Amino acid sequence: MWWGGRGRSFNIPPQKEPEMGHLRPKSMQVSRMEEPRSPQTSSCPALRCLPGEKILAWAPGVRRGLEPELPGTLMCTNLRVLFCPQGWQVRQDSVLNSDYDFSLSNIGRLEAVNGPGRPQILRPGSLLKFIPDEILIHGRDFRLLRVGFGDGGLEPLAFRVAMAIVQARKQNSQAQHYEGMILSKAYCGLGSNEPPVPLLETPEDWEAERRRHGARGWRVSTVNERFDVSTSLPQYFWVPRRTLDSEVRKAFSHFHQGRGPRLSWHHPGGSDLLRSGGFYEASDPNREDIRAVELLLQAGHSDIVLVDTVDELPTLADIQLAHLRLRALCLPDAAVAEEKWLSALEGTRWLDHVRSCLRKASDISVLVTSRVRSVVLQEQGDRDLNSLLSSLVQLLSDPGARTLHGFQTIVQREWVASGHPFLTRLGGSGGSEEAPVFLLFLDCLWQLLHQFPSEFEFSEFFLLALHDSVRVPDTPTFLRDTPWERRKQNGQFSSYTQVYTPGSPQAPPVGDLVPRPLTVWDWGLRYSHQQILQFYNPCYEPHHCSDICSPREQPTSVTPGPPRSIFLFSRGTLTPLNQLCPWRDGFSSLMSSSRWLPRHNASSDSLADQEWGLPPHWGASPLPPGLLLPGFLGPQIRLWRRCYLRGRPEVQRGLSAPTISGLLDELALLQGLLRTWASRPSSRDHMKTKDPDTPLSPSR
């Protein structure tokens, strides 16, 4: 295989597939080896550098870990820190996401150890006070890299590498990304069998998605094509067909950051799920603006449910604090006694937050699927919990969303295109607005995958790859806060306004020679075919979406009248409202933050446990097929061990293997243990004294 580099090319021998259980992406492009200008005596090890990458320092002859030790070379570049085991360049792929590779933005804490004393925490710009025996790199993705130098004249190299890492972290910006990551072909995704993920950057993409959802009462609006309505909204979105763009512009001006109500998902049964920001309390709309707001929220339905998204869910500060506590607890060197570990896990509140999100999403799914209505998710900023709940509701209600392509489309539409601030929430700057909301969503999805293993086409390893992708700055997908910033970074702004008419022919396909920026969905450039096969769930049982429910959409030719019933859903309770707009009859005086009404008494049961909790005049509505109602009580919510405890090999042993050969290896290991135990003279007598629940007990 030939790889193109900066200035020259060289031949790379064929690589073996990575070991079982690790998803190590392939290198994008190989550049010429940059010779470091340091006085190190040993020759620089072979490394397939990324475009723009320079080796700053390296230390050969070091060891990784303690038991067992793994000899190799520690290297520091201007983009990452990596440990290269002996023979790594011959038998391994590039390891951007492996156990041995840390991008600088992924390093959460760097420690230097010398003897039994307290380790020195090396922050950007700090000075190392001694020559370290060991360096501990704590990843923000729950990994730990421990590298020991020991004896043998490595003291100067240890000091030099440690200071190189400190200096590189100081110069590294949280927004820095790998250069040159541009595709030379139109698409490189999961393979020829999977369609490309729509990036939703053109009106044609939005129109195709609208038709796929069957949303006949909606159209694609171009009112934000120049980002002059809101820079955090996409250029295009769905609004009711009978609403003019001029009305949309006026109505959106009364919502926080210009994020007015718009369609998030159309249920095949006829209901519409909308999302919206909070009202500007000081705004004073005229009668025409109020009418436009009502038309957007009503969306052609006679029944409207306004959902207080923030209610019952954790704040951004709560999510950030729980994630920091969880990461500190799951590190291999966590100073928590084994008998107190479970209580410490409960004290992090992370699983409580997962439970509350699943509970809320389950209740909203019932509201969407039980009757034709407009369900509006309202959050003050409309960029965090609205994205999380909207995505979960679609995954619970729509079997098509549980396919690999369907899920990637949801993430692209509800998170990336809708302006979730990935860089602010996951940037690692330690700011007050940092909170891993997207990682909380992935944990919620893992719970669903664990409870319904045959309902999802993708596997846990796909979720792990997506979890780790937010820490690797190789694509702009998770490196910007708004669609406007991504378009500006990619230089894709046009000097004219494109006029789009529904039903017009699509733009010509992008040719193979037209470059486009790399996205996180281009797995084929970073992972091998064998690794991508692990993304698919072998237990998946596909459903026929046509059997889920028959369309009951309201006729689009009928002009909707005033809503018949308006309800506020808050704390598990539906409260009737007299009106829809908060500016009438002094309703704005009752508003606080993004809430429509003051909080009501909390309910101990969900809607699913209260016979749907719906008003009597709505009538009975059977549970639609394909709807998932997860459990969220006690042990039903579990710790994602393969993700959070990946730094502990002893815990990972025994988890389900990703391949058939891996399962055979684990089976052979267990059979060997059984033979060893059975060969002991007093094995049966010894086992009688064991706990009867011991997994390897002969009685079982």
Automatic annotation (TrEMBL):
UniProt cross-references to SUPFAM superfamilies, sorted A to Z: (Phosphotyrosine protein) phosphatases II, PH domain-like
A GO cellular component annotation in the UniProt record: membrane
Annotated ranges, domain Myotubularin phosphatase: 200-644
Biased composition (Basic and acidic residues): 682-693
Residues covered by region (Disordered): 1-44, 680-700
Family under the similarity heading: Belongs to the protein-tyrosine phosphatase family. Non-receptor class myotubularin subfamily.
PANTHER family for this protein: MYOTUBULARIN-RELATED, MYOTUBULARIN-RELATED PROTEIN 11
Protein name in the entry: Myotubularin related protein 11
